[in-house]
Amino acid sequence: MFDKPVLYLLTKITAVLSITIIHYTANVDITRLVISTLSFICVFLLEFLIDKLYHKQKFVILLVLSTIAACLILDMDVFFPIYLILVIHLIDILIHTKMFYHI
Amino acid sequence: MHYNNGSRTVGWSNLIQQKGRGTMKNIWLLTKTNIKRNLYAIILSVFGAFILSLILFFMGNLVTENTADKVSIGWIDQDQSVLSEDFKDYLNLNMDYDLIEDLSYDQLSSELIEKRISVIIEIPESFYDNMVDGVAKEIIITSLEDYENAAFLQVTINNYMNSVHMLSLSSGGNQDNFNQLLQDYKKEEIKLTQAAAKTIDIKEQKGQVGFINSIGFYMMIIFAISTILAFMILDDRLSGVYRRIQATPVKPIQYIIGSSIFGLLLCFIQILLYSGYITLMDVRIGVPVPVVILMMSLFSIFTISFTIAVALALKSKNAVTSIIIGFSTVGCILGGAYFTLDFAPKTLQDIAKVLPQYWFMDAFRRLQLDLTANIMPNIIIIVLYIVLFILIGAVMFAQNNKYS
């Protein structure tokens, strides 16, 4: 079975790839699309690595917050699916682990 | 902050310095061992640079010979008259075509099929007699694919035939009058002033074409050389050397860094020799040499990070070879390393934009067209690919460490 960091990583990468494919068919600037896709995947991998290797929650929170900020600054309409997953991830990290609805 | 270490007090900074020195020493030892273990890899790297320089030299010569030559035409004269001789001079001297004579129709057909000549022109028998009588006799032109040259030649022939037809009408069907008018017509020289919109510098064109071809092959060669690094890491993992290293003061990360430095050394030898050849031979490649060194270095780092990630993820040499050679071959073809994708379907062109090879080649192509072109997006994309594969490698490395 996958553990939570792997599941979050896969979900985020799927969201990024979906956005890329949707916007590729909408004839947007490919260069910008490739740069943003690669950047997001790199950040998510770094986040996964920190979570798995060092278990530093503070760094993970910092990375999630900065990615949310990037989504807001770049284009909220485009990156909304990623934003949504990031918010869920942030809530999941911040709430108490013994809560009834905790994943 | 200080702590008491027996009889003496040691500062944190000294401790970190000592630790840093130890790390550097271990990495240097590992790199040196790798060089001693794989001396043939350095020879291969030098040989790779030699091959690249040869490609640069020969491809440039080959392509410019084909493009800058005169247009060749096969010539069959079954009339052997004054008029056909005059027509031949017109094509040869006035229009600057290169006429290939003294070959049979079959031989000329072979030349045409192999694209060494553009068209075959046949002057039929009694061409002269018919023209004097005012009866236009058809000249047979055989062409194959070379539509531009054939169309241009058609216009040239039509112009000539119209002029001769006018002479024929003026002579009233009299052969002597016709010959006289033809002689007078030849003397009438209309001076044309020609000004080239763009002067083709053969040396520059040779350098540019040779460079763009050789840089495509560079991507293939660098992947082939990095296979040595992948095999080295895989051998160490499978034979237990990697585990024995873990038992020593050398850390696994130091082992990876040492191996990466060895891989980069192989790449940089090639880059320095290749760019040295360009500088020393003064090859005008249309791109500044520092930019070439920068882009090639970035691509080398990408190749090394990709190779290490693959070597850490897989457990058999066959799988590693298949992935590296498969990615380099398909990536180079799709990325436009050997030919441009301008005529490829749009979907294929868009798929190519996912590959780092495309952005690498695109930077050089854009710079050759315009030296002030902005290649920053290309650099950013290649750097992002490097970061991506370093991170994938790190994840693989962490997984291997966890389960070993």
Can you put this structure into words, describing what you see?
The complex is a heterodimer of chains A (103) and B (404). Chain A is mainly α. Chain A contains 4 helices and no strands. Chain A has helices spanning 4-25, 30-54, 57-74, 80-94. Chain A starts with a helix and ends in a 9-residue tail after the last helix. A 4-stranded mixed beta sheet of chain B has the order 4-3-5-6, with helices on both faces. In chain B, strands 1-2 form a two-stranded antiparallel sheet. Chain B is elongated, with a radius of gyration of 33 Å. Chain B has helices at 12-37, 39-68, 82-94, 105-113, 127-132, 147-171, 175-187, 202-239, 241-246, 252-280, 289-313, 317-334, 346-352, 356-369, 376-403, and strands at 2-5, 8-11, 72-77, 98-100, 119-123, 140-143. In chain B, strand 3 (72-77), helix 3 (82-94) and strand 4 (98-100) form a beta-alpha-beta unit. Chain B has 15 helices and 6 strands. Classes of the chains: A mainly alpha (103), B alpha/beta (404). Chains A and B meet through helix 2 of A and helix 15 of B.
Provide the fold topology:
The complex is a heterodimer of chains A (103) and B (404).
Chain A: H1 4-25, H2 30-54, H3 57-74, H4 80-94
Helix pairs in contact in A: 1-2, 1-4, 2-3, 3-4
Chain B: E1 2-5, E2 8-11, H1 12-37, H2 39-68, E3 72-77, H3 82-94, E4 98-100, H4 105-113, E5 119-123, H5 127-132, E6 140-143, H6 147-171, H7 175-187, H8 202-239, H9 241-246, H10 252-280, H11 289-313, H12 317-334, H13 346-352, H14 356-369, H15 376-403
Parallel strand pairs in B: 3-4, 3-5
Antiparallel strand pairs in B: 1-2, 5-6
Helix pairs in contact in B: 1-10, 2-8, 2-10, 6-7, 8-10, 8-11, 8-12, 8-14, 10-11, 11-14, 11-15, 14-15
